């Protein structure tokens, strides 16, 4: 199995300037985190609000620079302090955000939202851009007629499908999924998670799945990393971590999590394993 992404000792400090009433301070959001993800696999990064998981997700997609550490994409080292990715490297990693209402420009038609990454990053001719957008619309369970509609005409689940299609337009190797289903109803969550599993199979995608929801993580992850105050306190295969959590924080986290109705995801994964 080939490693698509390797993160070595990633650190991110935020310097918060002082004011008349408050002293300046440094927030240590990520404190030296290392992990790797193999092609076609899903690493879930779990932890409660403020543990640094979104910061890490933004570093992986180079939206946010790291203070120090190394990031290797397909073995090639990226300067993450500068975030100077070549267009080719930038295409390899894409992100889907939590909020399907905020992440799509309300003034753009779906066709323009989908083709924009190709306009910005490639010289793909207009007719090919349109063809690719149409193909991906169908792959995510939408229809060609949706191409000329606006985001407000879609439900939350459909908008997240559009955001997933947009992330796939550049044919990436790795998707960072930052709480991609947390804003959706449970039944819609299951549909979107099943879609992600199908797309992963079809395109051999690698996922970094950021979530606070253990019941979702349990069914989609191959590997799990639990973060606590900027540190990775647990890291291993899903079965190991769930069967035998080592850190007291993980034990507390697991004990406090109700099981959600994710039977369809469980069935989908059982089928995948049996195949
Ligand atoms: N731009 C910033 N400036 C200063 N501090 C920040 C900034 N962004 C994040 N932080 C701090 O870094 C820490 C980690 O934040 P981060 O958003 O990564 O956590 P999280 O686990 O993703 O939480 P959530 O799920 O609520 O988004 C928090 O203490 C947060 O307040």
TrEMBL record:
Boundaries of every ABC transporter domain copy: 5-254
CDD domains: ABC_NikE_OppD_transporters
UniProt xrefs under SMART domains: AAA (SM00382)
Primary subcellular site in the record, as a coarse category: membrane
Subcellular location(s) of the protein: Cell inner membrane
Keyword Transport carried by entry: yes
Protein name: Dipeptide transport system ATP-binding protein
Lineage, opening ranks: Bacteria, Pseudomonadati, Pseudomonadota, Alphaproteobacteria, Hyphomicrobiales
């Amino acid at each position: 199995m080939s490693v698509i992404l390797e993160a070595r000792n990633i650190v991110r400090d935020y310097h918060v300037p002082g004011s008349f009433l408050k002293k300046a301070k440094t927030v240590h959001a990520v404190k030296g985190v290392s992990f790797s993800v193999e092609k076609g696999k899903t690493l879930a990064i779990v932890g409660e609000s403020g543990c640094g998981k979104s910061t890490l997700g933004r570093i992986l997609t180079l939206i946010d620079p790291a203070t120090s550490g190394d990031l290797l994409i397909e073995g090639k080292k990226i300067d993450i302090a500068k975030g100077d990715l070549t267009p080719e490297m930038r295409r390899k990693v894409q992100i889907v955000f939590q909020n399907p209402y905020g992440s799509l420009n309300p003034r753009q038609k779906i066709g323009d939202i989908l083709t924009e990454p190709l306009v910005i990053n490639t010289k793909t001719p207009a007719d090919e851009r349109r063809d690719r957008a149409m193909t991906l619309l169908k792959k995510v369970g939408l229809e060609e007629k949706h191409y000329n509609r606006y985001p407000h005409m879609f439900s939350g689940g459909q908008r997240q499908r559009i955001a997933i299609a947009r992330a796939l337009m550049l044919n990436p190797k790795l998707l960072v999924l930052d709480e991609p289903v947390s804003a959706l109803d449970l039944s819609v969550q299951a549909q979107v998670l099943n879609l992600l599993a199908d797309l992963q199979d079809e395109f051999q995608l690698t996922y970094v799945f950021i979530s606070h929801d253990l019941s979702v993580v349990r069914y989609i992850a191959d590997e799990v990393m639990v973060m606590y105050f900027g540190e990775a306190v647990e890291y291993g295969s899903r079965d190991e971590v769930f069967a035998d959590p080592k850190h007291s924080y993980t034990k507390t986290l697991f004990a406090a999590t109700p099981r959600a109705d994710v039977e369809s995801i469980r069935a989908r994964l059982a089928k995948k394993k049996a195949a």
